[in-house]
Specification:
By secondary structure, the protein is α/β, with parallel strands linked by helices. It has 2 domains: about 1-160 and about 330-350, Rossmann fold, CATH 3.40.50; about 180-325, 3-Layer(aba) Sandwich (Rossmann fold). The chain has 13 helices and 13 strands. The protein has helices spanning about 20-35, 70-85, 100-105, 125-135, 145, 190-200, 215-225, 240-250, 265-275, 285-290, 300-310, 315-330, 330-350, and strands spanning about 1-5, 40-45, 50-55, 95, 115, 140, 155, 180-185, 205-210, 235, 255, 280, 295-300. A 7-stranded parallel β-sheet has the order 3-2-1-4-5-6-7, sandwiched between helices. It has a 6-stranded parallel β-sheet with strand order 10-9-8-11-12-13, sandwiched between helices. Strand 12 (about 280), helix 10 (about 285-290) and strand 13 form a beta-alpha-beta unit. Helix 1 packs across helix 13. The longest helix is centred in the C-terminal third of the chain and has 19 residues, at about 330-350. The radius of gyration is 21 Å and the shape is elongated.
Length: about 350
């Protein structure tokens, strides 16, 4: 199959730093290519995904992070190129869109089967959107927990990670000894401040990594997290993919005390792939990613999180790694999407 993969306009594929959706698209494209298909990724300038790639230049006002106008320019350009064809542009069998604006626009011009992945919860305005577009596209959810909120039928294809890159590590700590790790955005629902409190109560060192980009993130860091920093709780800034792997391989466990029903949680899978167990609240997709008592521990209270930290030595890094490879490899994700593409093509009659 020839597959057009439309990435969001907000960042490169793969991402230079943080970027869960962009990481998923990069891994999916590489796996589809390896399995004998012909993906082409439509992505912002600077993308380096090693398959056929079309870099969409920004609009006349330049590239603006999370700009609605930029996203509109990005998706209209992609759909026009896909439909018009021309020199160097293949005749595609299916479109796989990872944006929100793209499928809405596609309804007026669509001439190809369309698969759309929702990377956000099915609630509020998102359900309004996906209810409107489901007449002309096939919708994919990234976890059973997320799919439960949809207003109509969806296909579930769980995200995958590169388990060859995120390979097993010893969990032996760094030069200062063993540590727990938190990686994530700085906002209340992600729970970096809870991770800091839990680690200190449990007597563990904690390393915290994440980007301070938006004003809200900087405010959260200043008000909720910075007062908790010390010799035992250390913030190291934003990290790239290689440093993330090193930190995960050396960590005794990943702390993920989310206080919302997260649709997936890619960092948890990356941790498991490195053999690093996950300690998390049992919410959202965490219950599908973490096998309680085997690859990590799922908790309901802060006190339970503290107690779970004492049980880390009882968890098997080998089991964590094995479960990640079995359930969350890139080829497993790609095969799920290939089934979704084939169904979309059959339904369209093309």
């Amino acid at each position: 199959m020839k597959i057009a993969l439309i990435a969001p306009s907000r960042g490169t594929v793969p991402p230079r730093g943080h970027g869960g959706i962009e990481s998923v698209i990069d891994g999916l494209a590489r796996s589809l290519d390896r399995l004998g298909h012909e993906p082409m990724v439509f992505a912002p300038p600077g993308s380096t995904c090693p398959v056929s790639l079309y870099e969409i230049a920004p609009g006349e006002h330049g590239w603006v992070h999370n700009s609605t106008c930029q996203e509109i320019h990005h998706v209209i350009t992609a759909y026009r190129l896909i439909h018009a064809g021309g020199a160097g542009m293949p005749v595609f069998d299916v479109i796989h869109d990872h944006t929100k604006i793209g499928p809405l626009y596609a309804g007026s011009i669509l001439r190809l089967p369309l698969v759309v992945t929702n990377h956000s919860p099915f609630e509020g305005s998102h359900n309004t959107l996906f209810t409107a577009i489901r007449r002309w596209c096939s919708i994919v959810a990234i976890s059973e927990a997320q799919a439960a909120g949809a207003t109509g039928p969806v296909t579930v294809v769980k995200n995958g990670v590169d388990t060859d890159f995120y390979n097993a590590g010893p969990g032996c700590g760094d030069a200062d000894g063993p540590y727990l790790l938190f990686i994530g955005r700085f906002e209340e629902v992600k729970g970096a401040h809870v991770a800091a409190t839990v680690a200190r109560k449990a007597g563990w060192r904690l390393i915290i990594a994440g980007r301070l980009g938006k004003e809200s993130e900087r405010n959260y860091f200043r008000d909720r997290l910075q007062p908790l920093l010390g010799d035992d709780i250390r913030y190291i800034g934003e990290i790239d993919k290689v440093n993330k792997r090193r930190l995960l391989q050396q960590a005794s466990a990943l702390l993920n005390p989310i206080s919302w029903n997260e649709p997936f949680g890619l960092t948890m899978v990356e941790a498991l792939s490195c053999g690093t167990p996950v300690i998390a609240y049992g919410r959202g997709a965490a219950v599908e990613i973490v096998q309680d008592g085997v690859t990590g521990l799922l908790c309901t209270t802060e006190d339970e999180l503290v107690q779970a930290c004492q049980q880390i030595p009882q968890l098997s890094r080998e089991e964590a790694r094995a479960k990640a490879v079995e359930h969350f490899g890139l080829d497993r994700m790609a095969l799920g999407y290939i089934d979704a593409y084939q169904r979309a093509i059959r339904v369209s009659g093309r």
